[in-house]
Amino acid sequence: MKKLTLVRHAKSSWKYPELSDFDRPLNKRGKRDLPEVAQRLLEQEIIPDQIFSSSAKRAMKTTEAISACLNLKGDQVQEIPELYEACAETIKYLLQNLPESIRHIMIIGHNPGLERLCFDLTQEIPLKFPTAAVAHMHLSITQWHELADGCATLTYFDYPKKHLPPK
Known about the structure:
This protein is of the alpha/beta class. It has a single domain (2-163), classed as Rossmann fold. It has four helices and six strands; from the N terminus they run E-H-E-H-E-H-E-H-E-E. It has helices at 28-43, 57-69, 88-96, 113-122, and strands spanning 2-8, 50-53, 77-79, 104-109, 134-139, 152-158. Helix 1 (28-43) packs parallel to helix 2. The longest helix is centred in the N-terminal third of the chain and has 16 residues, at 28-43. The protein is globular, with a radius of gyration of 15 Å. 37% of the residues are buried.
């Protein structure tokens, strides 16, 4: 069985309108949420063999925080420029061509691609896929090229606002 974890980047800042979307940094909330998100991944033992991250600044900062908390080595983290603004089909293609030695992959990227991919694979609609959301799934496949719609079972879905005290 293969495993897939999808992580949407932490909350980003719109404070600097001169920056391109690609170069937007994390905002205060994003920086605050990241350690807690990473710690919950560690507590749930959601530790991938490999992380593929969008090369956008906010995704890379998210990746850095998560990989540090999970004690991943540098060669376990790879920047994939195609993940920036990738649609679900692009991400599926990337996954279908993974080496079989990878049992558990984490993708850190953006919406709407991640949300759509989560739906395609699980056939479940998460209420939302907010910033810093984590969707972990078990795939009923033994080889990555078998990845197809409906092959996944969502086993963990979490996001920072889920842990806020009720108003």
